[in-house]
Amino acid sequence: MHAFVQIALDSAREQEVFDRLQDLPEVKEVSVLFGEWDILAKLELEDPEALGTFILNKVRPMQGVRLTSTMIVAKAGQKQENKILAQARQR
Fold first, then answer.
1. pLDDT tens digits, one per residue of 2-52
2. How many domains does the chain have?
3. Which residues neighbour 83 within 8 Å (Cβ) at sequence distance 6 or greater?
4. What CA–CA distance (Å, rounded) separates 22 from 38?
5. What is d(CA 87, CA 27) in angstroms, rounded to the nearest whole number?
6. What is the DSSP code (8-state) at residue 35?
7. Cβ pair 27, 67 in contact under 8 A
8. In 3D, which of 3, 14, 61, 19 has the Cα closest to residue 37?
9. Which residues pair with 13 in a beta bridge?
10. Considering only Cβ atoms within 10 Å of each terminal Cβ, which end of the chain, N or C, has fewer?
11. Inter-CA distances, 29 with 24, 35, 91, Å
């Protein structure tokens, strides 16, 4: 299953949390944002229970994390050009 977690940080912690998230195998993409949320991470886990465990045990305890908001993906699609590129890479 896929999910996104938005993360609000204490000031000046973006790079540290960004780097730590990139090292976790469950994190597929990480972006630093401008606005209410500081980081957006795309996650891939087995099920909702694994997602909850991941957020509670790996994300929230990170130094500098102030607040998280998690969104579970209900349905995802891929643009046609991305499908073509993915198929070409598999060859």
1. 999 999 999 889 999 999 999 999 999 999 999 999 999 999 999 999 999
2. 1
3. none
4. 15
5. 23
6. S
7. no
8. 14
9. none
10. C
11. 10, 19, 24
Name the one residue in this structure whose structure tokens are 């998280």. Answer: 68
Q: Distance between CA 71 and CA 62 in Å, rounded?
A: 19
Name the token pair of 91. Answer: 């060859």
The DSSP code for 58 is: I
- Confidence (pTM): 0.83
Quote the pLDDT of residue 57.
98
Tokens of 3: 């999910």
Q: How much is the pLDDT for 64?
A: 95
Quickly list DSSP for 53-76.
HHIIIIITTSTTEEEEEEEE-S--
Q: ∠ CA 79-39-35 to the nearest 5 degrees? A: 95
> Which residues lie closer than 8 Å to 19 by C-beta, 6 or more apart?
none
Domain range for residue 13?
2-90
With a cut of 90, say whether residue 79 has pLDDT above it.
no
Q: What is the CATH number of the domain that holds 59?
A: 3.30.70.920
